[in-house]
Amino acid sequence: MTRRRREVPTPELRCPRCEAELQRFWSHCSNCGRRLEWRDTPKATGAECYYCRWVVSDSFAFCPWCGRDIRDRDSSPEPLKAPKGFKYDRRCRWGCGGGVMYPMAYCPWCGRREKWRYRDRFQNICPHCDRGVDDWMEVCPWCGEDATGRDLIRQALRRARQLLVATRVTAWNYRVLLRPGVSGVTPLTPKIIEIERRYVTRKPRRDEISWNLLAGLLLHELGHSFLYHNWAFTRTGRFRRAFGEVRKAYRVADSKWVDFERRGVTTTLPNFVTGYAATHPQEDFAETFRFYVARRGRLRELFAEFGRKRKGVIVFEKFLVLHDYVRSLRGWR
Ligand SMILES: [Zn+2]
Ligand SMILES: [Zn+2]
Ligand SMILES: [Zn+2]
Ligand SMILES: [Zn+2]
Ligand SMILES: [Zn+2]
Q1: What distance in angstroms lies between residue 261's CA and the mean position of ligand 1's atoms?
Q2: Model pLDDT, residue 333
Q3: 119-149 residue pLDDT tens
């Protein structure tokens, strides 16, 4: 007689403080940031590290979690592939011959740092420790810092937020994240505003970034996000006459964002607020939005400047279209 094997579901791992879901061997809850300890509770190996108390194997020479030397008489004299309680994912990247399991931070045989390809498993890279994080995470599960990197651009974020409030643009729950690559917003995730992290995470230059530039970039990207979030607005006749057809195939990726530091309206192109605005109708809108919010929606002041710089009627109209739309969202009219 054969016994029927029952399918045993893997137990859900949840944070003891906030109940958010966890993955095994995360150092922190990605929701509330609580420090986690992965002990030998199922008694799989019968051993815990003396220092960090995480589960280890008797045969290890180093703790794969805190990296300390835990060698004793039970330690294996030779590197092994995977002792009981551990899985073999690949060989140590230093060539000691031992096997390592994701997400060990150190090789348990030679004690050197291991690295993992987080890009296959996560949506983003933590701006603090370069390990994997997902876009919805508040806290990096590895280093415990802000997973979005918003803490690195706090001043610029505060500035952008204050300006939005002063302009009385209704909030739409956007989420700003630092990402390697370019700054932009994708139509698939219109509330996620990606900010190129290089300028902020590049170590010795942190004090040198211009907060005006970052705030300008943020306002520009917020313009893209605002438009995606209010896409029906682009179908109105008035919008189309002012900005044109925004539906041209296009993925917003702003790489030349040095331009966004300019606070003045350009004098060269009579039908656009800036040179960058002339590159695509969506950029035109984002630049119009940036100026509108940076000047707190004060049209009289802006229009005086347009007059001095000989802007065409269409530029005035773009700001009026936006102004009326922003007001209609608040239920005025
Ligand atoms: Zn938690
Ligand atoms: Zn340890
Ligand atoms: Zn090794
Ligand atoms: Zn991190
Ligand atoms: Zn743009």
Answers
A1: 39
A2: 47
A3: 889 999 999 999 999 999 999 999 999 999 9
Residue 60 DSSP class: -
30-39, 43-52, 196-205, 272-281: range with lowest mean pLDDT: 196-205
**At residue 182, what are phi and psi to the nearest 5 degrees?**
-125, 170
Ligand 4 centroid – CA 91 distance (Å)? 24
Ligand 3 midpoint to CA 80 (Å): 10
Query: What is the CA(183)–ligand 5 centre distance, in A?
Result: 8
Cis check for the bond before 103: say yes or no (omega within 30 of 0).
yes
**Nearest bound ligand to the CA of residue 114:** 3
- Please report the pLDDT score of residue 170 as a whole number: 86
DSSP-assigned letter for residue 152: G
Kindly tell me the burial class for residue 230, based on how many C-beta atoms sit within 10 Å of its own C-beta (0-12, 13-18, 19 or more). middle
| 8 vs 58, residue with greater confidence | 58
CA of 136 to the centre of ligand 1 (A): 14
The maximal CA–CA distance of the chain, rounded, in angstroms, is 94
- Residue 289's nearest CA partner among 257, 321, 330 is 321
Work out the mean pLDDT of the chain and round it to a whole number: 90
Nearest residue to 288 (alpha-carbon basis) of 247, 324, 255, 316 = 316
Q: Which ligand is nearest to the CA of 30?
A: 1
Q: 59: CA distance to ligand 3 center in Å?
A: 14
Count CA within 13 A, CB hemisphere, residue 288. 29
Closest by CA to 16, choosing from 33, 41, 40, 2, is 33
Query: Tell me: the pLDDT tens digits for 47-89?
Result: 999 999 999 999 999 999 999 999 999 999 999 999 999 999 9
Q: Which ligand neighbours the alpha carbon of 80 most closely? A: 3
CA of 249 to the centre of ligand 4 (A): 35
Confidence of residue 208 (pLDDT cuts 50, 70, 90): low
Ligand nearest to the CA of 56: 2
Cα 49 to averaged position of ligand 2 atoms, centre (Å): 5
Query: How far is ligand 3, taken at its centre, from the CA of residue 67, in Å?
Result: 11
